[in-house]
Design goal:
This protein has 283 residues and is α/β, with parallel strands linked by helices. The protein has 12 helices and 8 strands. Strands 4-5-6-7-8 form a 5-stranded parallel sheet. Strands 1-2-3 form a 3-stranded parallel sheet, sandwiched between helices. It is globular and about 45 Å long.
Length: 283
Amino acid sequence: MKTDQVMGEMIDFHTHNFPDALAPRAVESMVQKLRGALLPVGDGTLATQLKDMDRAGVARAVACPVATKPSQFKVILDRAKAVRDGEFGPEAATRLVQLCSVHPADGDYAAHLKEVASAGFKGIKLHPYYQGFRLDDPQVFPFFAALRDAGLFVTVHCGIDLGFTDVPMSCGPDQIAALLRAVPDLVFIAAHLGGCGGNPPHATDRLLEFPKCYFDTAVVCCCDDDREAQRVMAEWPAERLLFATDYFWRDISHIAGWVRRFRPNPADLEMIFSGNAKRLLDG
């Protein structure tokens, strides 16, 4: 495997792929929803992802599916098991770490969360805009409490979504803080640098009080040169940052270089690129 990393293994904590038959249609639908604001660097297939991981020196990547309706739980769980168990080849089984997804409106969410944990998976992915909920809605607090009690972590899309610019903010720092106060000890990965995009400067600072709140580094294109995104990348505690790209949307090496630009300290890079991820995935 070729690598441009200076030390250790690189783990990409936020990526996406689809079944081969679905990938072209799914990617095209999302591109249309984004109205050209963001164009993919990959085709959404598992095989292409593995090739791009090789080119960028990524040892493992976390696959983050989203159940856009409750009935998708089993399909997503079954595919996660199939990838993990080698049905898509040994390389995919060892290098693609599967998350699952449970819709907050799922009437059997408690049982399904336990099923995810019992199957050996570490966490789930949620997207408030695509799933139609707010993080600060008290009606979803029991769902997140059940998630925590099942021993799972959750990765959540946070901040703006370029496909939902006409929708009120549902997952920014204010909403995250309300959830984490209501559900103590929830292990929460706030994607896209804690949702700094679309929120006032220093809004993410209020999340420093929650020690189990992590940020992932998947910056969308409009944030590469955004001063607040740069500040968060430079200042957020290294032990709570997870290297992530949102691949197939962003180029892996580009995001890795962006991270190194603001966190040149080797000890910080070890935690961001792999150490923190290993603690969540392998601990």
